[in-house]
Amino acid sequence: MLVSALLTSVGINTGLCFLFFILYSVLRKQPINYEVYVPRLLAEGKSRRRSHFNLERLIPSPGWVKKAWQLTEDELLSLSGLDAVVFMRIIGFSLRVFAFAGVIGIFILLPVNTSGDQLTSVDFADLTNNSLDVFTISNINSGSYKLWFHFSAVYAVTAFVCYLLYYEYNYISSKRIAFFYASKPQPEQFTILVRSIPVAQGGSVSESVDNFFREYHPSSYLSHVVVRRTRKLRNLINDAKKLYKRLIHLQSYPNENDQRSCCFGLFRRRVDLVDQYEKKLEDLEENLRMEQSEVSLATDEVRAAFVSFNSRYAAATAFHMQQSINPIQWITEEAPEPHDVYWPFFSSSFMKKWLSKLVVIVACILLTILFLIPVVVVQGLTNLNQLEVWFPFLKSILTITFVSQVITGYLPSLILQLFLKIVPPIMEFLSSIQGYISHSAIEKSACNKVLWFTIWNIFFATVFSGSVLYQVSIFLDPKNIPSKLAVSVPAQASFFIAYVVTSGWTSTSSELFRVIPFIGSLVMRPCVKRNPDDELEVPSIPYHRDIPRILFFGVLGITYFFLAPLILPFLLIYLCLAYIIYRNQFLNVYAPKYETGGKFWPIVHNSTIFSLVLMHAIAVGIFTLKKLSLASTLIFPLPILTLLFNEYCRKRFLPIFIAYSAETLILKDREDRNDHSMPEFFERLETAYQDPALLPIQYSPHTDDLNAPLISSSTAV
Amino acid sequence: MLVSALLTSVGINTGLCFLFFILYSVLRKQPINYEVYVPRLLAEGKSRRRSHFNLERLIPSPGWVKKAWQLTEDELLSLSGLDAVVFMRIIGFSLRVFAFAGVIGIFILLPVNTSGDQLTSVDFADLTNNSLDVFTISNINSGSYKLWFHFSAVYAVTAFVCYLLYYEYNYISSKRIAFFYASKPQPEQFTILVRSIPVAQGGSVSESVDNFFREYHPSSYLSHVVVRRTRKLRNLINDAKKLYKRLIHLQSYPNENDQRSCCFGLFRRRVDLVDQYEKKLEDLEENLRMEQSEVSLATDEVRAAFVSFNSRYAAATAFHMQQSINPIQWITEEAPEPHDVYWPFFSSSFMKKWLSKLVVIVACILLTILFLIPVVVVQGLTNLNQLEVWFPFLKSILTITFVSQVITGYLPSLILQLFLKIVPPIMEFLSSIQGYISHSAIEKSACNKVLWFTIWNIFFATVFSGSVLYQVSIFLDPKNIPSKLAVSVPAQASFFIAYVVTSGWTSTSSELFRVIPFIGSLVMRPCVKRNPDDELEVPSIPYHRDIPRILFFGVLGITYFFLAPLILPFLLIYLCLAYIIYRNQFLNVYAPKYETGGKFWPIVHNSTIFSLVLMHAIAVGIFTLKKLSLASTLIFPLPILTLLFNEYCRKRFLPIFIAYSAETLILKDREDRNDHSMPEFFERLETAYQDPALLPIQYSPHTDDLNAPLISSSTAV
């Protein structure tokens, strides 16, 4: 790829970004778009839905940038919880890493690279006609002493990254503990989930739980809630909810009905319709209540229960110790937050769960294989000659410079990015059938899956473009990995630089512009009119989509910084954009749905350590290839030291992210001892883990307050 | 190797075994050998040291076989603890496996193998002139349907072994729990070891421990013992003990001194000598006492302490939970039995421990490499032509049939065995500097090391005889492992059959005869005369030497049963011998030194699963090599199922071997509640973990009772 192709791509994307920024600055001020751009403020009542028109509303203003910039970490913590803070720290961490690497890369390595002439001398007269490869390490002559600059850079950046990793892990650990100390008593702190409960002949699960914990934890056991199979009920409730929404809509806009019936597609008399819906809803609710009372009998009990204790320490003790002589009975787990419980999990049988796990593994493998098809096609695009062989009729078009530049510089990564968009939802679905008991655990697992999928399918598939079997064969022959990496990785430098510009820049600005919700609202607006009393659904940030994306750019940056330092400025711009935009989104758009207390950080740490070791492997290969064997030998201690450092961090910090220590729990328990609200809390605790599907439901209009149904049931279904 | 060579080897070894049996039957009845053959009975006072001479003492009698045979498992349990029971069950388990495999192998596979003619038809007229290879799978024609017999045998034996593994794991788990329930209160049940204790400025470790546990475990904390650095003290005590022994010897045999001084090598006047020794001993003890009082001051404190609680459950809770906010402080571990503590561990500093670990890894690698030298030489012996090339002058000798048969059939495995003898002590030493806090943990780790060393250095080094690099390269190319195994493993069948006969048979009979202790006592007897009041040191069985040996024969049997079924009868004879001989040794020779409660079993389980999967890999290779690709495809589910089974067992049984459950502990605690001896026990508990080097020592004769020094100090040093 030539410099000019890259510049084309940069030009297109800068234009797009500006367009998005300006559009956003204007559109966000239109009340009609409040639901898309400030749903959070709207839900909190901080923004009025309709305001009077003024001219200012049509002029783009960067006020939101200032607001986002001024947001402090403490404010963010109180607004969106610790997870949001951790998310912003990922970006901050990456910024610092690449600022450091950028200084080294641009001011030292780039001049060194251009000074070589292994490939060709740089044509300073006509910069844009140079191949991007002259800015990479490939341009340095074999055996040149200049490679020691790269060697030193590898050592310096590794040391800096490890120092930062330690600092961040330490900081987030302390934040996590402080967050726990500052928290009010929460049901999940006092509760554990017990699974595989054995039941005596003729007894019920409830009796079994009561007997066991009264026998072995008499002084601390408080109460329990047995989990029931509620798949049927949840379906019924969903039906009732839909019906109710329709009904409300009909009642709220009596006059609009006739005009709008075009959307429903048929003409009916309104009154009849309302009566009919009301009747239907009543029937449904009757049905529901019967089903509920049936489920409440012992027949549909699952062998699992939420067991509550009178102190956090007692709950933690029960969680940490194997309870029964038989290790596969009375299995204890930490309870998630009540609204974080993934209830459908409990409805499936043991065999089904086991099979789902197998299915998930197979599905992940299949997805990986199928995904290679678009990747290979995309790789063909960067190679124009190949394309001309495949589609000879394109020859004439491809000779136009601009077209060929767009095709090589912009199209490949755009196509890739579109395909990548579908991966996070698929991975989330796969995780949800894999057997996690909470939404947060599902998201964490999906986050990991998406990350490794991206690294495998974008990084390795692009680098070793070829069949799956070829890729696998490389990893089955471990001693040749460095040399193969050394040949293939630098060759793809230009593709990844373009990838950062297209995928990175566009994804952040489209995140700001919220393309899909915006289009959605545009399409829906003429058909469905919201009831102003309707509860607005505030979205939560999909960590499993955004964290892997940022981390993947981290992997690219760390592996390429010494090969092709030109990638760094583009990365830095991406990170700066992300820094401002995500802060803005936390302020205006996303509300937290659950709180893991920073449990996403270990994923970041592991991925960074992986990138470092990958970078070292590439360095070993490169220095061998460039016939500087002393340097490649001297790199060897680096991965070992990095892994030792990782081992230390695992010991020093990871346990903090898994469970709280005895010291923490006992101190927190003592603090509560004098709290007068505790008896009330314990009373609420008894029913905190009630399956929402079993709570009384009242949608039908034969009640006084129509607008206050027990909506709580809707959140967790 | 020809059948006749194998028969020669069998002949020699049968002769040796008989010789050992007869010698043992006679020698064990001679009072002079009681210390070698019945030290345990002697120490327990069940056998008088000297009895009158009678003729019966000179006639070999098999009475001991009957006695050993009649020993029940309960008797063994009460005599030698659960570890001995587990040890005997390893042999019983192997016996059952190979009896089943033996029936299939001898009655089905062996006739099938001989019926083939891939190599050569069997010469039934002159059986001894056949090569052993005609009895192996190599003799079956490629693509023959007969291979389906082998295929079925692989499935049948895998199923049977897994069933037995499950049964044994279950049985031993229940035994372990029953053993715990039946145990009296033991200090280790109420105690944990706490390490990495942080110390406040100016404070002592003891204060720190007291404050922490009084703060966080006020209701259950009982007492603690801070560990001190006692290397110097232990050296002094050893010196004092040596001196004391000499002194006692001089005083006990006043008249013999002049005759025996030959051994001391110089002439002196006895009285002078005694006086001199007494003076020296007194000085030494004075020195010791000063050192003790110095160590007792805070200066030599290690940041570790044994902390005792008032119930087993409280101790287990403290052990299972992370105590401090900082996960690398207040690290808790289960305490070993007081006499099992490996005190020298605490004397070394953190850096030293860390370095030792690295040294151990390097040492293990070096040992593996160096050990290949004898293995390669031994392999040369089985190949006579090679030997003639190396040592041409041997040509004339090697043409003698008997000599060549001895060299190919007997010598190779004898040499290997001699080299193998030195491995267990080396591995034990390496484990002891690796950082374990108890003798039992050291032995368990050494057991694992010896096992994998044996499998790697005997099995793989023999199979892939070649350089280390060649072996490593095979494992770096995983997809070719089965085919390489399929070529190499059957080729070594005759060597391993001979190995079972020489190494197996000889090792058990020399275990019975106790060759080294016997020779030792022969040599020492004329020089040193034991004081009858001297405490007799009863040996304990070196599990790290004997368990890997039996397990390695298990690996051989499982991998070779379908390749060369001829190995099975020899294995069965070996196991029968071992069954009787080890029971006899537990009765007469070995006394348990510590009790792990059956923690050696998981090693057995893992090694068996490994052999099964290795066997499957070989089967895949063999069926591919023999062009029966359907069979090799159908074998694939087998390793997967085996590993799934292993995973289930890890969940179902392994936790039982790591820690006791809350249920078990609470029940046991409740049982003690009405026990009147508990206050007394708790009193003793306070000093149970006192470093023996710090106990008052009194050897010098200026006390009334000279023969009652606090010998306890000697056991753990």
TrEMBL record, chains A, B:
Q: Where is the CSC1/OSCA1-like cytosolic domain?
A: 189-344
Q: Which UniProt keywords apply?
A: Calcium, Coiled coil, Ion channel, Ion transport, Membrane, Transmembrane, Transmembrane helix, Transport
Q: Which residues form the CSC1/OSCA1-like 7TM region domain?
A: 357-623
Q: Where are its TM segments located?
A: 6-27, 86-110, 147-166, 358-377, 389-411, 450-473, 485-505, 550-582, 603-622, 628-645
Task: Identify the InterPro entries for this entry.
Answer: Csc1-like, CSC1/OSCA1-like_7TM, CSC1/OSCA1-like_cyt, CSC1/OSCA1-like_N
According to the UniProt entry, its GO molecular function terms are: calcium-activated cation channel activity
Q: Which GO terms describe its cellular component?
A: plasma membrane
Enumerate the subcellular locations listed in this protein's record, separating them with semicolons: Membrane
Q: What is this protein called?
A: CSC1-like protein At1g69450
Q: What organism does this protein naturally occur in?
A: Trapa incisa
